[in-house]
Fold:
Amino acid sequence: MIKKIDLKTIMYKIKRRARKYIRIFLDFVFTIICNQIYFLKKTYSKRKINYIIKNKSSEFLIKLNLGCGLDYKIGWINIDNNSDQNIVRVDIKWDLRRPLPFKDNSVDLIFNEHFLEHLTVEDGIKALCDFRRILRPKGVIRIAMPDLKTVIDEYLDPNWKQRAWLSKFGMSHVQTQAELININFHAWGHKYLYNKEELERRLREVGFYEIRFCKWRESCLYELNDLETRDESTLIVEAVK
Structure:
C-alpha cells in the first residue's frame, strides 16, 4: 500500500530545519563580528594609549588620574568610564573594574579620589591588584576617600545637623541619625567604606609594602602634592610597590 505524501508536514519540517541552521549561521556570524569589534577596540585602545603616553608624559613620568570625573589634571592621563555622561574632557574612557590596558611595570604614579568606595570590596581588591601590576617598582599610588571613622563620628555627634556637607549636597532634608549614616553608606553609588585599618589591610593583601597616611593635599613627593579637590577626602594614603 502506497503512503499518501503529506506536503504540508514535509514543508513544515523543512522550514523548521532551515530556521535552525539559519540561527546557527547567524550566531556564528555574530560571534565573528563581536570578536572583530573587540580586536579593533583593543588595537585602537593600545594605539591611543601609546599616543597619550608619548604626548602627555611629564618629565618621563607616566601618571594616571583614575576615576577622574570632572577633575581633569594637566600632565596626567585622565581615565573614567563617564557613567553619568557628564564628563566633558577625559583621555581614556575605561571601566576600571576591568584590567587597565597598560603593560606591567609601566606606570610611575597613580592617583584616585573618591573612587574605591564606589566598588564592592571584591572589585576593589581586583582593582588594587591591577594598579599594583602596572606600577613600576617603587611606583606610588595615592588614594583619597571619605573616612568611615568620620562617618561614625558624625553619626554620634549631637550637632550632626550642622555638618556643612548636608546643605552642600542638598541633604538638608535628612531627619535622623539613622538616615544620615545610611546616606553615607549608600548614596552617590557608595558600596564599601574604609577606615585606616581596613584600607591598609587591603593594600598589604595585594602586595604594597610601604604605606603612609597623609594630610589633605600634602605629600613628601612633589608630584603628589595639591591633588585633592574634595573637602570630604578625610582618608588619604600613599602606598609603594
Summary: Strands lie at 63-66, 77-80, 92-93, 107-113, 135-145, 210-213, 235-240.
